[in-house]
Design a protein that fits this description.
Strands 1-2-3 form a 3-stranded mixed beta sheet. With 600 residues, it is mainly alpha-helical.
Length: 600
């Protein structure tokens, strides 16, 4: 359908141009109306037929890649166009500065996920809870509320992410809505207040993941996305670790409420900086190859909500020109008898205004049908399924491992904590190494990254059998520490590459919703993992067999990852064709494109 719209749009372009060139005695009213459109859009005024015949044909202008909402910054002069393109090209330094703000915001957002756990007893004492109430109400119900609110919030914000014109503004608002209650935790006096505020905080944690990966998908091409995904993946884990360490250090001295302020205030601050300093990237700006893959930014005023939005979603010019523009749109719609939908009318209206310009517009917009289509993509389905099995072993490491080493293997709590720390250190190395290694493999052969993910996940289960079943860990528990370190590396190679694959096989206007669905699956695995393991402990009447079964889930996860070897290449090509079908070209650009295709 999108390709048909693009074709019909080009034909409408051609029809408009031919009709204008054939009618030498067109009315001055029509010419004035057309010139006012071009003036409002900063385009050169249309020439009359006499001027056309007497003036030499100007050289073709370089194409400008832009979204359908960004039609108010096209310039007429060749030098001005080149300067405008240069201004909208994002340098490597600027893009990585954006990633720095994203990762810092994400780290502080995830820092408040487990802030209460180091100070449970102190909080229970303030609320006069018994030991049982402490475990149920503070450790159980609050975490449940956090994810019960955060999960649907992720879906809603993911959809809004694909529909909004400014994702950086939505990121700030999401952070403010979620971290505002986190700040307010400092003033709670009753349990129900704490419960409500912790539930609201889940909005920020649940909504940030689809927003951040959608933005990064339009900041970086498929050749570097795995590396960037590794930064965001590390930020989440580092944020959780920082939150627990900070809460354990600050809480006993200054009170259990202070860590919530220390975590929330920087999150809001960095989200505000992101809104102020990061320009909204063009959707598809790094996916649709336009004359060397120019990368443009939307108007900074548009990304911050300055001005009023036009019916196409862009920023209206304002004043009398805005009124004229609206009248011209109405008259243009009346003249268009072939339009069958509102979107077609909007596209035809933009095209009629830009008829003499050398422009390509990526017109992809999110709708329910596209979401259904993407949820049927084989690689997406495999990613979702492997996520359920792959997160179950983490339930052992997060909820049971230290206590298992202490109670069942006779180690001290400090030795168990050291083992988990080395596991986390290995995980950080695995995430960085996996992003770099996986990116190189993907650039050579897209399917080969599936082999890396599948085999590394399976191999990661092998050392776990050692530290679950062994009763001797060598001198000073060196073999325990080494096996935990190796397991951390191997099982962490997959996450950055899985997220890069999701960015690569889904068109830019669908990524927010797809990542929201991925977040749901990830949360289900993390939430139900400990419950599933608890059931295994009851069934097998002990922890050892239950933990062996849990770590075996990485083999099932690895199988689904290996199955992606036969789907990634095809799904990436399909996504490329879908994005190409969403491009609307002006006649001048269409002719240039045809000439390039013929030369090839």
């Amino acid at each position: 359908m999108s390709h048909e719209r693009a074709s019909s749009s080009s034909s409408s372009f051609a029809g408009l141009v031919s009709s204008e060139s054939s009618s030498e005695s067109s009315s001055s009213v029509s010419e004035q109306r057309t010139n006012s459109i071009h003036k409002a859009l900063l385009l050169p005024p249309k020439q009359t037929s006499m001027e056309t015949s007497s003036s030499p044909k100007p050289p073709p202008k370089p194409p400008v890649h832009m979204t359908s909402s960004f039609v108010d910054t096209v310039t007429a002069d060749d030098d001005d166009i080149e300067e405008d393109i240069d201004e909208r090209k994002t340098s490597r330094k600027q893009r990585y500065f954006s990633v720095f703000l994203f990762t810092t915001t994400s780290a502080f957002l995830y820092a408040d996920q487990n802030l209460l756990s180091p100070n449970l007893s102190q909080a229970a004492e303030e609320f006069n809870f018994s030991d049982r109430e402490k475990d149920v109400k503070l450790a159980g119900w609050l975490q449940l509320a956090f994810f019960v609110v955060g999960s649907p919030a992720s879906l809603i914000i993911g959809w809004m992410c694909d529909k909004t014109e400014s994702r950086v503004r939505l990121l700030f608002l999401t952070t403010l809505i979620g971290e505002g209650p986190c700040l307010a935790t400092y003033w709670v006096t009753k349990y129900w207040q704490l419960f409500m505020l912790r539930a609201m905080t889940g909005i920020a944690v649940g909504g940030c993941l689809p927003l951040l990966f959608s933005l990064c998908g339009d900041l970086f091409s498929h050749k570097t996305r795995a590396k960037v995904a590794s930064f965001l993946t590390i930020a989440t884990g580092a944020g959780i670790a920082f939150g627990q360490i900070m809460s354990g250090a600050v809480g006993p001295k200054y009170g259990w409420k202070v860590p919530f302020v220390v975590s929330a205030a920087p999150a809001v601050f960095f989200a505000f900086l992101t809104w102020m300093l990061v320009d909204e990237p063009v959707r598809g700006g790094m996916d649709v190859k336009v004359n060397g893959n120019h990368f443009g930014h939307q108007n900074r005023a548009a990304s911050r909500g300055v001005g009023e939005e036009s019916e196409e979603g862009g920023v209206a010019i304002g004043g009398e020109e805005k009124k004229k523009k609206k009248k011209q749109k109405k008259s243009s719609r009346k003249d268009s008898s072939k339009s069958s939908s509102k979107r077609d009318e909007n596209e035809d209206d933009i095209i009629s205004q830009l008829s003499v310009s050398d422009i390509e517009i990526y017109s992809g917009k999110m709708d329910v049908q596209k979401l259904k289509r993407q949820l049927r993509v084989k690689t997406n389905v495999l990613v979702f399924i492997q996520g359920v099995f792959g997160t179950i072993p983490w339930g052992v490491l997060n909820a049971y491992f230290v206590d298992y080493l202490h109670a069942n293997r006779g180690l001290t709590v400090g030795q168990g904590t050291a083992a988990v720390t080395l596991f986390g250190l290995g995980g950080a190395i695995g995430v960085i190494g996996g992003g770099v290694w996986g990116q190189r493999l993907y650039n050579r052969n897209k399917s080969s990254v599936a082999v890396l993910m599948g085999l590394s996940t399976m191999l990661g289960a092998l050392p776990s059998y050692y530290f679950v079943n062994s009763t001797y860990f060598g001198p000073s528990e060196s073999l325990l520490y080494f096996s935990c370190f190796v397991t951390g590396i191997l099982c962490s190679l997959t996450p950055p590459n899985v997220r890069a694959v999701l960015m690569n096989i889904n068109p830019p206007e669908t990524r927010g919703s797809v990542f929201a669905c991925y977040s749901q699956v990830d949360d289900i695995g993390k939430g139900l993992g400990p419950v599933f393991i608890a059931g295994l402990i009851v069934v097998f009447n002990g922890r050892q067999i239950a933990f062996n079964v849990a770590f075996s889930m990485w083999f099932i996860c690895g199988l689904f990852l290996l199955m992606m070897k036969g789907t990634i290449e095809k799904d990436a090509e399909t996504a490329s064709r879908q994005m190409e079908a969403e491009i609307v070209r002006s006649p001048a650009r269409e002719r240039t494109q045809n000439e390039e295709d013929n030369n090839v």
